[in-house]
Amino acid sequence: MHVVAMIAGIVCIFSVLLDAFQTIILPRRATGRVRLTRIFYIITWPPWVFLANRMHHPRKRETAFSFYGPLSLIMLLAVWAALLLFGFGLLYYSLGTPFYDIRQHAGLWSDLYVSGTEIFTSGPSDAGPLTGAARWIMVVEAGTGFGFLAIVMGYFPVLYAAFSRREVNISLLDARAGSPPTASELLRRHAHTDAAEALSVLLIEWERWSAELLESHISFPLLCYFRSQHTNQSWLGALTCILDTSAVLISGVQGHEARQAQLTFAMARHAMVDLTQVLTKEPNPNRPDRLPTERYNQLYAGLCQSGVSMCRDASSEQRLRDLRRLYEPYAETLSRYFCLPLPPWIPDQPRKDNWLAVAKLRAKAEEANPSAELIAGEGHAHTIAALRDDHQDF
Predict the structure, then answer these.
(1) Helical (H) or strand (E) element with 29
(2) Closest listed residue to residue 316, CA positions, set 295, 292, 298, 300
(3) Considering the entire predicted model, what is its pTM?
(4) Which long-range CB contacts under 8 A does 209-215 form with residues at least 24 apart?
(5) 153-174 residue pLDDT tens
(6) Which of 107, 130, 153 is the C-terminal boundary of a domain?
(7) What is the DSSP letter of 193?
(8) Which residue segment(s) compose the domain that 372 sits in?
C-alpha cells in the first residue's frame, strides 16, 4: 500500500511539473496526447459550450463564452496546485505519516494538511516532522511551491500582453473591412487612388500579425479561448477575412499587391493549419460552400463596380476555389470547435461599424468644402460616400 502511494505521489508531482513546463516555459508546441492541460480543456470546454448555447440572447451567449478563457486559466492553476498538494501528501503517507499533530491523530489528513501548508504558507505551527526524510521532503515541497508561484506570477503578464497585441489589429480591421470583416468590404474600401500601395502595406501588417499569432498561440494554445471585445470580432474571423482577401487577389486581381498577397496567404494559412494541429482537430471536408457560383458572380460584379481591377476568365472561379480548399476546411473545424462564426464573403446586410460616426462627420465636411485640395488630400471621398449610402439607417 505504501509503495503504491509513493508511486502515485511521484507520478502526480512529475505530471504537474512537466505539464507546467510545457505549458508555460517551453517556447514551442507541447507534445503528447496525455497531458494535464489537454485533458483539462477536453473535459471542461464541451460542457461550457453546451451551457452557453442554451442562452438564446446573442450578447449573453458571447459573454458566457468570454468568461471561459480567463476562468479556465485560474481553474487550470488550481488543478495544478491541488495535484501538487495531493502528490506530496501521498509521499508523506508512503513514509508512514512521519508527523506529530497536536489537534488530531496523525494520518492521511495530517499528511495532506502539512502538504497544503508547505505549498501555500511557511508550514504548519501545530504539526511537524518526526524523521529526517520528512524534513527534506518538506524543504523540497516549499521550494516547489515558491517556484510554482513565481512562474504563475510571470505567466499572466505574458499571456495578456500576447492577447493585447492580437486584438490591436483586429480592432483596426473594423474600419477597413467592416463588422464583421469581409473580403469584399476590404477590397471595396481600398478601391481608391493609390489603393494598391495602401493594400500592400495592410497585407504586410497582417503577414506579421499572422506570424505573431502562430508564435504566441502555439506556445500558449489557451489564448485561442480568449474572445475579442466585440461580438462581431474574433481572431478566427479576422484571419479568415485576410485569407479570403489574399485568395481573391492571387486568383483574379491585376496589380503588384497580388505578390504580397501570396506571402500573406502563406503565413496566414500556416497559422491556421498549425493551430488546428495543435488542438488535434481534423479539417472538415464536408463544409458548407461559403461562396457558391451565384455569390461569386455577385462578388465579382460588386468589386468591378467599386473599381477593383478584376481578371475574369474561364478558370478564375476555379482558381479561387482551389485556394479556398487550402484553408477553409481548417477554418470550418476551428469555427465549430470555438463557436466562432466565419465571416461571409459579402455582407449579408448593412451593419453599423464601430467607426461609422467618424465617416459620417467626414462626409459632411467634404460636402461643405468640395474643394479640389480637400478631395485630393483625402483621396477616397467616393469610398466614404459609399459607406454613408450603405448605412443610411444608422
Answers:
(1) none
(2) 300
(3) 0.81
(4) 209/166, 209/169, 210/239, 210/242, 210/264, 210/267, 210/268, 210/270, 210/271, 211/267, 211/271, 212/162, 212/165, 212/166, 213/166, 213/239, 213/271, 214/267, 214/270, 214/271, 214/274, 214/275
(5) 788 888 889 999 999 999 888 8
(6) 130
(7) T
(8) 355-394
